[in-house]
Design goal:
- By secondary structure, this protein is an alpha+beta fold.
- The two termini are 18 Å apart.
- It has a single domain, classed as Jelly Rolls (Sandwich).
Length: 138
Amino acid sequence: MKTFSFQLKTPARTAFIDITSIIQEVVNNNRYESGIITVFTPHTTAGITINENADPDVKHDLDYKINALIPKEDPAYTHYEGNSDSHLKSSLFSPFLTLIFENKRCILGMWQAVYFCEFDGPRTRTVYIKILPDTPNS
């Protein structure tokens, strides 16, 4: 199975970028009707998550609360690069997720979207998508 990838230019230190349509395009352009998709980013200061896409205030609230819970500056941080907060946030959100697709459609709830989460931007980031099709006999 081929691995697909794309790059994102993130706009700010913290950002939540909807990548659902990109993932769906990969599903549309493959030959399989159903299976599993893994979405992964190889960065220790970024993540992938699913959340609501209907109200933009949700992204605002995520940004506000994650930065309030894990501030950029903390005298207890010892990581010399100055981005300890970004590493902590990445670990909480995870660098990957798994989705199911059926009939060439990602299975998501009515209000759900897949977000790339930037915690140390702005940067250029890479996202990988791997499709694992259902076996013919399943």
